[in-house]
Amino acid sequence: MVLAVVFGGGAAHGAYQAGVWSVLGPRLVPAFVIGSSIGAINAAATVHMAPQQLAHWWQSLTSLKTRGPIFARRNFVPLLEQMLRSPKRDQRAVLAVTTRLPDLRAHVTRIDGLSVADAREWLLASSAMPGIFTPIDRHGTSFVDGGVVNDLPVDIARDIGADFVVAISGTGIGRIGSDHGDVYLKPSQPLPRLFNFRPAAIAEMMALGKKDAEMTLRHMTFSLPRS
């Protein structure tokens, strides 16, 4: 069985996903992970960090000077590069979804075999929310946030070959399809605003993610597969 984990978009709501992953991560061995926007960044992080390390990484993001999303992003890039340079914990495939311009088509890039610089640019493209961040140019083509066309790319994971999908929402503002995966985790309570990286907000979202994941496990009538 081919197991995939899908991470949705949602900016600071990625902290919720980190909370979910702290519970589910030790129980899963996916063949690949895929994400849109902040979900692509979290997907990449699962290869370089243990589940609890990802939670600590999100806590470190609260130190960013948040004078608006553009300023915060500028300070975020070094942390992203540091994560990508850290040793890999496993060799699972990591896929980032972007939106190609001008035709607004979903574009999927496997980034786990790329250089740090190339992987960084694809992750920045996947999270380049229109109207806030400028498009990212890759080889003469412009790309923006993958959530524009597919904020929870479960269907793409199926097309690639996943038999079983665990989908973790970030409640982003992009479009999602009707397929929410075989196990679908989304916030059981409203989350703070998309760009609220304040320590209290990050802690709140991670705690809710952990709680929701534990609740999901308790109510399962089957065991999670391991690829």
From TrEMBL:
Keywords: Hydrolase, Lipid degradation, Lipid metabolism. Residues 5-158 form the PNPLA domain. A motif (GXSXG) lies at residues 35-39. GO terms for molecular function: hydrolase activity. GO terms for biological process: lipid catabolic process. The active site is at S37 (nucleophile), D145 (proton acceptor). A motif (DGA/G) lies at residues 145-147. It comes from the Bacteria. PROSITE patterns: PNPLA. This is Patatin-like phospholipase family protein. It comes from Lacticaseibacillus rhamnosus (Lactobacillus rhamnosus).
